[in-house]
Amino acid sequence: MKSDVEISQETVMEPITKIAGKLGISEDQIEQYGHYKAKVNFDPTTEKPNGKLILVTSINPTAAGEGKTTVTVGLGDALNELHKKVVLALREPSLGPVMGMKGGATGGGYAQVVPMDDINLHFTGDFDALTEANNTLAALIDNHIQHGNSLNIDPRQITWKRVMDVNDRELRQVVVGLGGRTSGVPRQDGFDITVASELMAILCLATSLQDLKKRIGKMLIGYTYDRKPVLVSDLHVEGALTLLLKDAIKPNLVQTIEHTPAFIHGGPFANIAHGCNSILATQAALHFGDYAITEAGFGSDLGAEKFMDIVTPRLNQSPDCVVVVATVRALKLNGGADKKTLNEENLAALKAGVVNLKRHVEGMQRYGKPVVVAINKFASDTDDELTYLQNYVTNDLQVTGTIINSWAEGGKGAIELAKEVVSACDHPSEFHSLYSNEDSLTDKIKKIVTQIYGGNDIELSNKAKNALKRIEKMGYGNLPVCMAKTQYSFTDDAKQLGAPEDFNIHVSDLQLKLGAGFIVALTGKILTMPGLPTHPAALDMDIDEQGRITGLF
């Protein structure tokens, strides 16, 4: 079988002007980046009835793979096959995982967005712009302290970190300002990965350039010696930072292998941020399509929960249908099977592992929206395994379960799923929020833990308790919560697979993100700067004299 990059390179793409034309986007509304990529100048205030919104999520990710983006792209191509006007809205890949181990974010096989090599690398430069804006702010903060510190900023209480779009564990904790009086004030600092920056969250939650500037001005960068908050607006640099992001805020238009239009924009991780593409991209998909398909990062316990509780109120539209992706292989792993034997039939492990899918489906049903399960078929799945899983979904979970094979067949491999999704979208439903703004901060976290994760309670460290007191004293306890948690488990322990019971979630710290408008609850041993694995994907990549890329998945 050909690799993803080989399939992508053999695709005959349509000019991006033609893709835009299918949506009614004129040439003066796009800024081309070559022949097959473009920025779109979109005004979300334009009046037009919005299309149906489909949210794709999954069970907890495993080393066995779930193929959530492959399903998302395949579903879009299948709706296109059914002559529906459909537009995708997806996240941009981060170079850290691309060069590390997670891989890209463009789908796989014959269900991909293209050109996948460009998208997985620098694309249109959005992440580069975010990195520069983030680090410009860091430099301006230190420069302010160097030249008199009129704001009385305490260098020990600076909360703003520098970032890089690289998995680099060496930079988690650093000391800056060494080299004498002319080189700044020595202090402990650290780096996050770019996608963990609050600027990334703000870019994805902003509804206009002016909203972006307003949110940047609200960002908390640290505290004074007398513990008063210092905001970006106190430095008067929100205009300069917005200037650096003036192009990055515009959604990027590309296409799938089957020429379905796709907006790819923004990319916060769901385990350390809110995990959804930009509101502007989703609004554009809703505006230009009768069906908009978007995807939330990692499993439903992370990305989908955050889409429902953080994005939906800002989007002013809830999903008409939720698709939960599952695979036989991943469920067998959740049921105790050895990763090395996943190609072998193991009904016992599958029966033990389906509890993971059950909890994800039930968690999404709490929001009141129809749920459809997409069983993503792998070549090693046996008929007995697939039959058991489909019967379990239909009879035990009492939701529609459809086997799809978009990786090998593209849109044709997801036709039945597309039909079920259309039917589900036509079902009248009412959205139910998990919590209200009036709930206390601890109650919000508890509701997520008990109703989505299936846990018992939360435990706050002394550091988290102190942060809670400070946040409530400042009057920000009404903000929503963004959980920072391992993606591999419902618990804060990545090794606890399946559907663990009788557990508590340990909150190590609470971080105030005023620009994004949420509070990050750090749990377990979550890291905002990942490291590279023993065998990084970068070791297998190359480029020849003709510029042809190999090894990029």
UniProtKB/TrEMBL annotation:
Pfam families reported in the protein's UniProt record: FTHFS
Binding annotation for ATP: T62, A63, A64, G65, E66, G67, K68, T69
Keyword ATP-binding carried by entry: yes
This protein's pathway: One-carbon metabolism; tetrahydrofolate interconversion
Top EC class of this enzyme: ligase
EC number of this enzyme: 6.3.4.3
Ranges annotated as spanning the membrane: none
Domain of life: Bacteria
Biological processes, Gene Ontology terms: tetrahydrofolate interconversion
Gene Ontology terms, MF aspect: ATP binding; formate-tetrahydrofolate ligase activity
UniProt entry tagged with the keyword ATP-binding: yes
Keywords: ATP-binding, Ligase, Nucleotide-binding, One-carbon metabolism
Catalytic activities: (6S)-5,6,7,8-tetrahydrofolate + formate + ATP = (6R)-10-formyltetrahydrofolate + ADP + phosphate
InterPro entries: Formate_THF_ligase, Formate_THF_ligase_CS, P-loop_NTPase
The protein's name in its UniProt record: Formate--tetrahydrofolate ligase
Phylogenetic placement of the source organism: Bacteria, Bacillati, Bacillota, Bacilli, Lactobacillales
Name of encoding gene: fhs
